[in-house]
Design brief:
heterodimer; A: 111 residues; mainly beta; five-stranded mixed sheet; four-stranded antiparallel sheet; 47% strand; globular; B: 115 residues; seven-stranded mixed sheet; 50% strand
Chain lengths: 111, 115
């Protein structure tokens, strides 16, 4: 599975959009981009995933560049409850959806 | 609500004393995973079951074993816990990947302390 690179930490003001970048320059054609988050002392939570098109759900939007080498997770109106570590993961369906977690981005939402 | 349940949430065991952590799911998912997460680190995959097929990660120590008696339950056995095995253990499930890719659903974790 392709490796991902994320900033170690970010912060965002409450109510503003939080934009979390991820680089995955070695991604291959059958690999999906997934985002999970982990709030302190809880299990990770699925947010969103995509293959090549932009995706949106009730939690977030995922923007994947045309060359698929990078993506951005957007939380449109960040709240204090969005404070968590956010993991960008690349995986293919052929690997039984195995997740290899990187170090993630620690997002802090300030009041 | 369909979910992934882990019991107990907190487990204390003695150095060298075998311990079993349990996971159950009501999602009827084919695949079940076990992860280890040490303090301030990302979760690390130990192994997974695809139905009854066991798949071990190459660097998972032999001290860690797993059983899946049926679709709903999966157990993590640590045969001789060492101090370095103190961690949060996370169970997760996903649907049969088939020709697509599916998200994983995680339980709340069991925090293991070794004394």
């Amino acid at each position: 599975d392709a490796k991902t690179t994320q900033p170690t930490s970010m912060d965002c003001a409450e109510g503003r959009a939080a934009n979390l970048p991820c680089n995955h320059s070695t991604i291959s054609g059958n690999e999906y981009v997934y985002w999970y988050r982990q709030i302190h002392s809880q299990g990770p939570q699925y947010i969103i995933h995509g293959l090549k098109n932009n995706e949106t759900n009730e939690m977030a939007s995922l923007i994947i560049t045309e060359d698929r080498k990078s993506s951005t997770l957007i939380l449109p109106h960040a709240t204090l409850r969005d404070t968590a570590v956010y993991y960008c993961i690349v995986t293919s369906y052929s690997s039984a959806s195995k997740i290899i977690f990187g170090s993630g981005t620690r997002l802090s939402i300030r009041p | 609500d369909a979910m992934v349940i882990q019991n107990p949430r907190y487990q204390v065991t003695q150095f060298g004393k075998p311990v079993t952590l349990s996971c159950s799911q009501t999602l009827n998912h084919n695949v079940m995973y076990w992860y280890q997460q040490k303090s301030s680190q990302a979760p690390k995959l130990l192994f997974h079951y695809y139905d009854k097929d066991f798949n071990n990660e190459a660097d998972t120590p032999d001290n860690f074993q797993s059983r899946r008696p049926n679709t709903s339950f999966c157990f993590l056995d640590i045969r001789s816990p060492g101090l370095g095995d103190a961690a949060m253990y996370l169970c997760a499930t996903s649907r049969d990947p088939g020709k697509s890719s599916y998200e994983q659903y995680f339980g709340p974790g069991t925090r293991l302390t070794v004394t």
